[in-house]
Amino acid sequence: MNLHEYQGKEILSSFGVEIQRGIVAQTPQEAVEAAKKLTEQTGTGWHVIKAQVHAGGRGKGGGVKLAKNLQEVESISNDIIGMNLVTPQTSKEGKKVHQVLVAEDVYYPGDSEPEEYYMGVLLNRATGKNMVMYSTEGGMDIETVAEETPHLIFTEEIDPATGLQGFQARKIAFNLGLKGQAFKQMTKFVTALYKAYMESDSSMFEINPVLKTSDDKIIAVDAKVTLDENALFRHKDYAAMRDIREENPTEVEAKEVGLNYVDLDGNVGCMVNGAGLAMATMDLIKQAGGSPANFLDVGGTADAARVEAAFRLILKDPEVKAILINIFGGIVRCDRVAQGVVDAYKAMGDAVKVPIIVRLQGTNADIAKELIDNSGLPVQSAIEFKEAADKVQAVLA
């Protein structure tokens, strides 16, 4: 589950990570009041107005701007709230901005120049260990840094049996070229950041930039946080942070009816039971010359109501040119699924305007094929994988 910047910073702060302070606002008037409060709390006269959407690169799309007075706070907030923000990580339509974060200005003058770093905590799936990835090139796209100057990216793997050790935090601060008070602050920052990552059951923390201020404080200026949805039962307060306005509407609807659905950009809709079979089915579609339009696991209870709900989700995508239903009848009988397909098709009537290929294998597969073939509906049945692939290829030709 993705979080907004201000929500991620709330979690970081609760674990002792120093953050750029801010107040979220839904309207330009609220933004002005937030700026006044921040001035009272921090003494800052300038404020940074940040669009709150689930996407990076907000500054490139005009979603992050500096306001030097209250009038600019109001006018900039008015421009950003309600806009469709287009960034390198959004679609061409962009994402609508519903709120902004009014944050303190932390780039103030002092004894030294502010410096920006990149830092992320995530799982290295190749080794099965968490790692801290960091770079002196903060404020930039880490993908660009990795491509153009890979020697400027460092990683520190964490042994799960011992956790982050003090020498590792100090090594990170050393590799970033820090010394004195900034060195001490960075080791403290890294330790608190890793604790936040572990105890919040996150799958990723990305801070870009981590800022060394002109007076050697180390703070998180941004926060991109992804929580592990499977662990939300342990964090009811985090679960309440979900903003479904930022999520794919079809995927939200699928969750509400208990279906595992991920929207893709292909032309063949998939309805499958079991994640492994779903992945194999998507490979099958690619080999047949198509492209999967979705990942959809209906689970082990593929009755008529569930199949109909799955049909309606798939058909919301106007790019779908065919639907492949691939069910292995183990727990659920194939004839029950076949009857569900027939009943759902009849219930939806003219709503189904694309060819449907149904492959049923397993318990009562022969009975299921008879049900499909004798239904009088324009639904094609298949038994073997290759047979289903050939039929998908034929309807796309």
Automatic annotation (TrEMBL):
One GO BP annotation of this record: succinyl-CoA metabolic process
SUPFAM superfamilies: Glutathione synthetase ATP-binding domain-like, Succinyl-CoA synthetase domains
Positions bound to Mg(2+): N208, D222
Pathway stated in the Swiss-Prot or TrEMBL entry: Carbohydrate metabolism; tricarboxylic acid cycle; succinate from succinyl-CoA (ligase route): step 1/1
Pfam family, one: ATP-grasp_2
UniProt cofactor(s): Mg(2+)
EC number(s) given by UniProt: 6.2.1.5
Cofactor note: Binds 1 Mg(2+) ion per subunit.
ATP-citrate synthase/succinyl-CoA ligase C-terminal domain boundaries: 271-391
Reactions mediated catalytically: succinate + ATP + CoA = succinyl-CoA + ADP + phosphate; GTP + succinate + CoA = succinyl-CoA + GDP + phosphate
Gene3D superfamilies with a match to the protein in the record: ATP-grasp fold, A domain, ATP-grasp fold, B domain, Succinyl-CoA synthetase domains
Sequence positions that bind ATP: K50, G57, R58, G59, V106, E116
Binding site for substrate: N273, G330, I331, V332
Top-level lineage group: Bacteria
Record function comment: Succinyl-CoA synthetase functions in the citric acid cycle (TCA), coupling the hydrolysis of succinyl-CoA to the synthesis of either ATP or GTP and thus represents the only step of substrate-level phosphorylation in the TCA. The beta subunit provides nucleotide specificity of the enzyme and binds the substrate succinate, while the binding sites for coenzyme A and phosphate are found in the alpha subunit.
Assembly description: Heterotetramer of two alpha and two beta subunits.
Name of the protein: Succinate--CoA ligase [ADP-forming] subunit beta
Organism: Croceibacter atlanticus (strain ATCC BAA-628 / JCM 21780 / CIP 108009 / IAM 15332 / KCTC 12090 / HTCC2559)
